[in-house]
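Design job #97: recover the sequence.
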């Protein structure tokens, strides 16, 4: 037995054979099949308690990164020092996930997601163990030490993260940030908070126009970079000030006092210097209702952006049509296949040409100008489009236009 810190039970010292098997299994677990990871994520984000996290792209992605980090942390530790107690994972992925949970108003109970994931991981680990040895005594010893190791690791990690989350909550409950977040939460929930009181706490007028944005950074984006990106969005919209609320470790909620959403060209230009940040912009609104609705539009836009990794920003009007179909994925996929046929998997330039042609009301010269392409190239592409479509483009332009717009934002098989 190996003795740990005071109060901890003695840690067992497995046999050399058990340690050998544990290391071999950990080597397999270090790079698990994609199906394992998918099942792990589904379990972690399932259930009513985790619904707020599952429905928030930033929170869900944070939990997924933490799941993978925890699995690899445990496996790597048992490759290096098989059988020893694995230290808690307080690396950037779980810490960032914990901060995001606190900043969305969730408590330490949300860390039970890791326990749900642990159950899935244990089932797959047992299969690994059964593949390593058929000797009953070896298998019993391997499963015993594995169960102790995994349970202790998850318990220690949750305990460490809970402590960090409590510290984060204490920090957030002090000062103006907590006041702003509390007031914004009440406004978004439609609570009966007076406008004068809300304006006093936000130090932001609510009677005028509002255009909301959600600024989300890639993992590891610093607060300074997020702030710089939010300021770039304000410049693109011509706003001289903004209301900003920290919604997560790498997420800001922003409201600009402008009646028109920032033009795409200006957004693209301003965000060139911020390639690790993605921005979703809502429709402009007015008054308290507009403040609320514009934010929800931005949130819907953010969810669509999560399905289009190559896009760095979008306005609600860009995704509005696709967002209407977001909850009808099976029907959407069938519609896309029936309408586009082989064009779905063809060169993206063909699809862009077809959509530009429809928007140009069938004018090939205007299509060429808008595509910065020679007219003869446009004609050749349109001929190829007709070959790939189930029906010629000129016979079915409305359905094709809708399908091409949906395809921008929906992942299909």
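Job complete. Output follows.
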């Amino acid at each position: 037995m190996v003795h740990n810190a005071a109060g901890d039970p003695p840690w067992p010292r497995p046999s050399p054979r058990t340690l050998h098997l544990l290391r071999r299994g950990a080597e397999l677990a270090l790079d698990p099949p994609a199906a394992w990871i998918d099942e792990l994520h589904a379990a972690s984000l399932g259930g009513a308690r985790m619904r707020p996290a599952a429905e928030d792209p930033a929170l869900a992605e944070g939990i997924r990164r933490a799941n993978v980090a925890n699995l690899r942390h445990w496996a790597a530790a048992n490759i290096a020092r098989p059988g020893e107690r694995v230290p808690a994972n307080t690396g950037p992925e779980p810490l960032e996930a914990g901060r995001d949970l606190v900043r969305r108003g969730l408590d330490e109970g949300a860390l039970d997601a890791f326990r749900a994931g642990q159950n899935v991981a244990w089932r797959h680990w047992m299969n690994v163990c059964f593949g390593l040895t058929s000797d009953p005594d070896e298998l019993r010893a391997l499963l015993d030490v594995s169960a102790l190791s995994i349970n202790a690791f998850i318990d220690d990690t949750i305990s460490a993260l809970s402590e960090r989350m409590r510290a984060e909550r204490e920090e957030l409950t002090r000062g103006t940030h907590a006041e702003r977040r509390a007031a914004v939460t009440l406004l978004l929930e439609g609570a009966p908070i007076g406008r004068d009181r809300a304006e006093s706490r936000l130090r932001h007028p609510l009677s005028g126009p509002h255009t909301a944005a959600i600024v989300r950074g890639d993992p590891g984006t610093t607060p300074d970079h997020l702030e710089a990106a939010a300021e770039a969005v304000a410049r693109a919209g011509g706003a001289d000030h903004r209301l900003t609320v920290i919604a997560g470790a790498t997420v800001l909620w922003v409201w600009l006092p402008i009646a028109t959403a920032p033009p795409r060209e200006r957004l693209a230009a301003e965000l060139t210097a911020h390639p690790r940040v993605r921005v979703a912009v809502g429709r402009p609104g007015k008054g308290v209702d507009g403040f609320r609705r514009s934010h929800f539009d931005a949130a819907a836009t953010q969810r669509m952006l999560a399905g289009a990794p190559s896009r760095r920003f979008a306005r609600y009007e860009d995704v509005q049509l696709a967002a209407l179909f977001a909850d009808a994925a099976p029907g959407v996929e069938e519609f896309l296949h029936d309408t586009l046929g082989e064009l779905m998997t063809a060169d993206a330039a063909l699809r862009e040409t077809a959509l530009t042609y429809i928007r140009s009301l069938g004018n090939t010269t205007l299509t060429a100008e808008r595509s910065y392409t020679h007219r003869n190239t446009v004609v050749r592409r349109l001929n190829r489009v007709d070959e790939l479509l189930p029906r010629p483009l000129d016979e079915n332009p409305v359905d094709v236009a809708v399908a091409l717009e949906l395809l921008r934002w929906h992942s299909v098989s």
